[in-house]
Structures are given as C-alpha cells and as structure tokens.
Amino acid sequence: MKSPDFVNYRPALASEEEYVSSGQLMPTDKETAAGWHSHEKIAYSPKIQHAEELPREGWDEWYIFNNPTELGTSHLQENIFEVPRGRGHLSVFVNYCFALHQPEMESIATLFWQQMDWARPESYVADNDYLNFVSMNKALFASVHEAVKVLGTR
Q: How many angstroms from the chain centroid is the CA of residue 13?
C-alpha cells in the first residue's frame, strides 16, 4: 500500500524546516519560479500536487490549508515558552523532538493545540524523530492512520 499523498488538497502550504543551522526554508530559484515565496521566516507554496514536490531536509513541519493562509511571523530559533502566542505568532514545534504521544510533552502539546486552534490548518505534519500527523479531515486522517499501521507491520 502506498502512503497517502496528504498534500494533494492544499493550495497554501506553510513550512518550517530545520537545516544544519536550524534556519528557515528559503525557496530556490526553481521553487520561486513555481510560485513559492517566503515571508516573516515562513515559506509558502503554490498548490502541491504530490509529496515529491516538497523540499525535505529532515525535521520538517508543514501546515496544510485548503486556501491561501497568512500565518504571521515564525518564531524559529526562539524559546517556545518565551515567544508571543496567538494569531500571527507561529511557534515551531518540530525542533523540540515533539511527539503528541509522549506524556513528557504535555506542556508543549498544550501550546501546540492552542496554535492549531488559531491557525486552523486542514492538516499538520511534522517529521523529526517521530511522525506527527493531525487533520480536521477525518477520511484523510483514517487513510494516513491505516497506511502507517501497514508500514508498521513490515
């Protein structure tokens, strides 16, 4: 079974990526020509048709929307407990080895759910030592959940 392509839906994808320097994703000339742009340390893409179109360096965090959405300012490289919270202030969770299933992440999970409440992405994907996937789309979530279960049995 092929992993579901959960990026099909989305015309406005915001990303945060950690590179060696924990820096922001800066679209390449090719990505810029394809419609990517960066604003306030957040990269925005045109509609993504296939997951292979996404730049990946590891420790990636993606917010997937059905419509173009401005998220404000990224607080990448800032202490997640000391930055302003609320609309227009995007905390970056992937750099904390964030995993929703770990009880010791409860304080970060609380901040995460508060951010999901104002950002309202259709889906969120983070890939660090763990894969985190949340979605308001129940059918999509079920499809991803099933694919992950199948992968876990291999």
A: 8
Q: Is the pTM of this model over 0.90?
A: no
- Would you say how long the chain is, in residues? 154
* Distance in angstroms (rounded) separating the CA atoms of residues 128 and 31: 23
Domain boundaries, the chain: 12-147
Is the Cβ–Cβ distance between 17 and 60 less than 8 Å? yes
Residue 101 CA to residue 98 CA, distance in Å, equals 9
Q: Give me the phi and psi of 132, to 5 degrees please.
A: -110, 130
Tokens representing 65 are 């929307």
Q: What is the pLDDT of residues 7-17, one digit of tens each?
A: 543 334 444 43
Judge contact between 30 and 65, C-beta under 8 A. Answer: no
pLDDT value, residue 154: 67
Beta bridge partners of 152: none
